[in-house]
Amino acid sequence: MAALGAVMVTSYLSSSVRGQALGIVAMFTMLGAALGPVIGGFLTSVYSWPYIFFVNVPVGIIAILLGMHIIPSKPPVAPGEKLDVPGVILVFIAISTLIFGLTTIQGATVVGGAVAIIVSVIFWLLFVVHERKAAQPLINLRLFSSRSFSFQNIDILLVQMGMAGVMVLMPYYLEMIKGVSTGNSGMVLLALPLGMILTAPIAGKFSDVIGTKKPIIVGFVISALGMYMLSTLSAVSSVSHASIYLFMLGAGSGIAYSPLNSAVMGESPVSDRGMTSGLLKMMTNLGSSIGIAAVMLVSLTVIGPELATSSIHDLPVRDLVFGFNMAFLFLAVMEVVGIILMLGVRNHETGSGMESEPAIGF
Fold first, then answer.
1. Smallest Cα–Cα separation from 215: which of 249, 155, 255?
2. What digits encode the pLDDT tens for the residues 284-299?
3. Terminal CA-CA length for the chain
């Protein structure tokens, strides 16, 4: 379902409102991510944990009924194409071994993690070779000959890498350094998705008017600043400061994210939009996985060998804070990389100069 969001927006709406529509999609995505843990915690505490799964039943039924009655029927773009099964298998193995390797290379199984990463590299190479020869490839690699398409896909990965890395590391800082309870820690973390919820639709609308490049760069600049400020947090910093920096990161990510999606979809021909929409979601999920693994690897490496001989709760607060700071600083550098990549991208034309499909619902 997530992979089809961008292609549905692009197929059913005029290109003149693509950025705005994708911004609204991003807003509701983050709204769901923000409300999900809160609602899940409520259901678990009041009833029991199986109810967090039952809640999907009425939601799913409503979505099916609304989809049947509201979403127009469109003929398939390429009805004769077949699924590239070998490509699916190769990319599945490449991604799964990469994630396994990144998550296990941090601990005592360094050798196993390194081997998994090597296996991942081999299967990525096999995937590229296969896709170049396949008559109906899973991913049209020719699209990556466009510098704009390639750089902006990497930037989507970097945006998600930063958000996921912060969301997994901040609870440790809040609970272990600041002594914030688990429930209150979750409330503090809501500042990040709130920033994205407020800015994503606005940035999408602006990108329809002035193009995508400037909003993306502005978003990365704000994200880099917010990430850098997170790297300055200490044991005596106030929780309100952490909330402000998280909001800055969320706002910057929201400003960059919807124009990025719009730009990538705009670079894709109609026949490849379904593939491109799935690719966007793959880059998003891959960014989350890499971001989580990267911040844990950086922080644990900086903390040093003492971690292997003692509990993390027994380590000096100074060492823990320094480890967190270096992980956030690493993510700030990744945000700067995103800016540099965007400087090499041509400004995407606004919707008025692109293909014109009939707008439905706007």
1. 255
2. 888 988 898 888 888 8
3. 22
